[in-house]
Amino acid sequence: MISVIIPTWEELMFTAQCLSSLFKVVPEDSEVIVIDNGSLDGTVGYLEDLSRIEKRLKVVKFSENKGFAPAINEGIRNSSGSVVVIANNDVLFPDKTFERLLDCLTHSETLLGLKKVGAVGPISNKAAGVPNEQFQGSQTFENVSKFAEMIFSRSRGEWRQVGFLSGFCLAMKREFLDDVAMIDKDPVQFFDEIFIPGGWEDNDLAIRAAEKGWALVNAADTFVFHFGSKTISKFPHLRLGTANRDVFYRKHRRHEVKNEKVLIYYDGEEFPIRSIDEIGTLITAKDLRELDPGAQDLPSERRSLAYEYAIRESYAWMIGILRDEIPEVERLKEVMERIKKNPNPEAKGYLVPIIPMFDHDLARRDFPWSALTGLRIMRVEPGLSFSFEPRDIIFEILPNVPSWNRRYCGVRFFDHRFERPDWKEEMINQASRYGNPEVILQLVYDEKPPGLTKVEPAEISLSMLLGDGEADNILEFLDPLSYLVDEIVIGDTGSKDGGRSIIEEFYHWVKLANVPLDDDFAGARNKVKSLCSKQWILHLDWDETMNPGDAAPHEFREILRMTEMRAHAYTFEVVNYHRMGDMFTTDSIRLFRNSPKFFYNGRVHESFDKAMLAWGPEFHLMKAPFRIHHLGFVKGRDRIASKLSTYERLCKLDIQDDPKSPKGYYNLALHYLNDGHPKEGVSLLRKSLEVEPRYWLARKELLLWYLREAKHHLDEVMRNIPENHWFFRIANEWRNWLEDKTGDPTGV
After folding, report:
1. Distance CA 484, CA 704 (A)
2. Less Cβ crowding at N or C end of the chain, within 10 Å?
C-alpha cells in the first residue's frame, strides 16, 4: 500500500488543484494524509468536507504552523504503507505518476547495479536539484498528463543514481525510513526538525541515506508539475531556503575532525614517491593480491577490492592513482587537509585534471585527451557502485559519485603511460576487450606529430573584495572554488552583514584582510593583489559564476589549462543579466600572471588599461574560451538602485579626476543605458569618442546601440505591413541578421 503525505499551510487554491489531480491517479488501496499547519484561509474546512466524500483522505490538524519537517514526520508516524510518498501542496500529479515511481523504486537496484535503493524522485518544471523541463500551456491535469506522457515516451527507463532528491515529491521505502530515522528524538523524526519552517531537510536526508548505504535514484522518465515556492516565499527571513543552508553546514561540519583516515590506492606495484605516506595509508595492486590471492587480477576487480577494503577498515577518504600516474604530491597533501574539513557534506568526490605526458616534463596539448578529468578523491560510503563504461576502465579508478556530489580539484595528475614504448599495443588490447571505443582507436592511429610543451607551475590565487550584502552568497560561491584554487585572498571593505564571520567559521584557511574602500575600487583591489602569493590571480565577484548550477563545470578544467599557456592575461566575456530578461556583455581581464606590472586603475569598473600600455608590445593577451555570468542586476531592486547610485557617483569622480580619459564617460554611459536612459547614455558614448576617437569600447557600444535601434525599427515595419508585402521578406532577413549579431534578450 502507498501512503501519500502532503503538508498544507494556506494556499487553498493550490491544495485543491493538487488533491484533485492526486485522487485521479493514486491507487485505490492507498491512504492520503494531509497535515494542516494552522491554515486560516478555509483550507481546514475544505479538507474536512473532502474527507467526508473521499474515504482515502485522513486530515491531521495543527493549531499553529510547525513547519514542513514536523508535518511530514507526523504524517509518516500516522501512515501504514510500505511505500511513503511525500509531496508539496503546489504540485499536480499527472496520470500514471505512482505507477512509474513504483516501477523505478522496485527495479532500479537491479538495472543500475545498486545494493539498495531507498528513495526515488521525478523530474519537474520547477524544482531545485533535479532536471527541469520547460512546460508550456495551461496548467491543467489534462495538459500536464500529456506533457508527462511525452517525457515518458522520450526517456523511458532513464534512471540514474543521484546525490540528492528534492522533497517537493519523493517516494520512499518504509524500511529506508526506519533505517535513517533519528530514533534518539522523542517522538522519532525522519526529517530533521531543526530546519524550520522549511528548506534543506531533504539535503540532510540525502546525507543520512548515504551514510547508511542507501542509494537515491532520479526517475528521469517521470514528470510531476510544480508551481514552486508558494509557501517558503512567505518567509522572507529564510531567503528562499538559503538561511537553512547555514544550519545544514553547522550540523554536518567537520572542523573538529582531526584524524579522518585516508586510504591511497595505487593500481601498480610500487609508488615512486615516498612522501605520499604523509597523506594517508598506501595500498598497491601487489598488496591486494596478497590480501585476496583468489581474486581475478583485472583492473575492475582490483578497484572493487580496494574500495571494499576501504569500507571494511573504516577509512573516511580514498585517493585513487592509476599505474602510470604521478600526482602533485605536495599540493595533494595541502588540498586534502582542506577537503577533510570541507563544511559542505554534499561534496564527496573530487575531479582532477589528467595531464598526458610524452617526454618526462613535456605534455601534449593537441592530444584528444588533453582536457581529460578523472575522479581521484572521494568520501568512502557503502552505497556507491562500480559500473564502469569501457572508457572508464582505462581512465577511472574509483566508484561512480553522483554529479550532485562532485567538485573540481586543482591538483594535477600526470599520466606517463604514453612514455612507455608499448602504450599503443596496450590501448588496442583494452579497446578490443572493452568494446572497441572509437576514441581510443582514434588516439592510437593519430599520426600527427605531437605538439609538446613544458609543464609549468600553475598555482592560482583567487582575489576578491567583501562588502555588505554578500553574506547570502558566500557558502554557495566558495564551495565549488575552494579546491580549484590554491589560495583565496579576500579584502573586507567594511562588511557589516555577517559575511566575514561566515568565512571565518567555515573557511578558516582563507586570507582575510581589512581593506578600506575609500571610494576607490582599484586601490582596494591592488591591496588585495599585493597579498596574493601564487603565480596566477583569478578575479571574481560574489554574484558571478562560470557555469550556473554546476558545482564541477568543465570551465574549471579550462582555467587550469589556460595557466599552462604562454599568455600574460586572459580577457573574459562577462554576461550581465537583468531582471526583465535582457542581457548585455562586457569584456574584462579576470585571469592574469601575478606580476608587479599588473595594477588596477579607475575608481569603479576598475581595469588594467594603463598596465597594458606599460607592458608594451610584448604583452600577450588571450581570450578565454568561456564566459563569466554576472547575476548582480537580478537581485532586489533596492540593492540594485543603491549599487548603481554608488557606481554613478564614482564614475563622475573618475571624470573629475581625469576629464581627458574616455573611460569615465564610457562607464557612466553604460550605467545610463542599463538604467533605461538611452539619450544620456548615447550622448556620453559620443563624448568618450570626442575625448579619444581610438577608444574602441565606446565605438563598439555605440555601434551595438545603433544596430539594436535598427532591429527595433524593422520590428515596427513588419508589424505595420502584411506578410505578403514585397518588403516583409527583406525586413525579416535583415532583422534575423541583426539579431544574430547583437543578441536577443534572454530569460534568466
Report:
1. 36
2. N
pTM over 0.70: yes
Query: Cα separation of 596 and 461, whole Å?
Result: 15
Integer Cα distance of 729 and 717 in angstroms = 11
The three three-digit cell numbers of residue 356, written as one number: 598526458
Q: To the nearest whole number, what is the mean pLDDT of the chain?
A: 87
d(CA 588, CA 627): 10
Query: What is the rounded distance in angstroms from the CA atom of residue 380 to the CA atom of residue 382?
Result: 7
Mind listing the pLDDT tens digit for each residue in 164-197?
A: 999 999 999 999 999 999 999 999 999 999 998 8
Alpha helix (H) residue ranges in 416-473: 423-433, 438-444
pLDDT band at residue 362 under the 50/70/90 scheme: confident
Q: Which three cell numbers stand for residue 398?
A: 574509483
**Whether the Cβ atoms of residue 481 and residue 557 lie closer than 8 Å to each other:** no
- Which pLDDT tens digit goes with each residue over 610-622? 888 788 788 899 9
Q: What's the CA gap between 35 and 72, in Å, rounded?
A: 8
pLDDT confidence of residue 236: 47
Question: Quick check: helix, strand or coil at residue 375?
Answer: strand
Task: Please give, one letter per residue, the 3-state secondary structure of 185-203.
Answer: CCCCECCCCCCCCCCCHHH
Overall average pLDDT of the 48-74 stretch:
95
Rounded Cα distance, 256 and 82, in Å: 39
Q: Is the pLDDT of residue 232 over 70?
A: no
pLDDT of residue 139: 92
What is the SS3 assignment for 107?
A: helix
Alpha helices in 163-252 (DSSP H): 174-180, 201-211, 243-252
Task: Note the pLDDT of residue 258.
Answer: 56
Instruction: Judge contact between 98 and 2, C-beta under 8 A.
Output: yes
The architecture of the domain spanning 659-742 is Alpha Horseshoe (1.25)
**Dist. CA 217–CA 109, nearest whole Å:** 9
Q: What's the rounded Cα separation, in Å, for the pair 495 and 475?
A: 16
Condensed to tens digits (0 to 9), the pLDDT of residues 128-158 reads 888 899 998 899 999 999 999 999 999 999 9
Cell numbers at 516, concatenated:
578600506
Q: Give CATH superfamily name and number for 460-634.
A: Spore Coat Polysaccharide Biosynthesis Protein SpsA; Chain A (3.90.550.10)
Distance CA 366, CA 94 (A): 50
Q: What whole-number distance in Å separates Cα of residue 276 and Cα of residue 330?
A: 9
Burial of 78: CB neighbours in 10 Å, binned 0-12, 13-18, 19+ = middle
Query: What's the mean pLDDT in 10-31?
Result: 95
For 20-68, strand residue ranges (E) read 31-37, 57-62
Please tell me the CATH code under which domain 2-252 is placed.
3.90.550.10
pLDDT for 494-506, tens place per residue? Answer: 999 899 999 998 8
Distance between first and last Cα of the chain: 42
Residue entry with cell 525599427: 713
Q: Residue 272, preceding bond cis, omega within 30 degrees? A: no
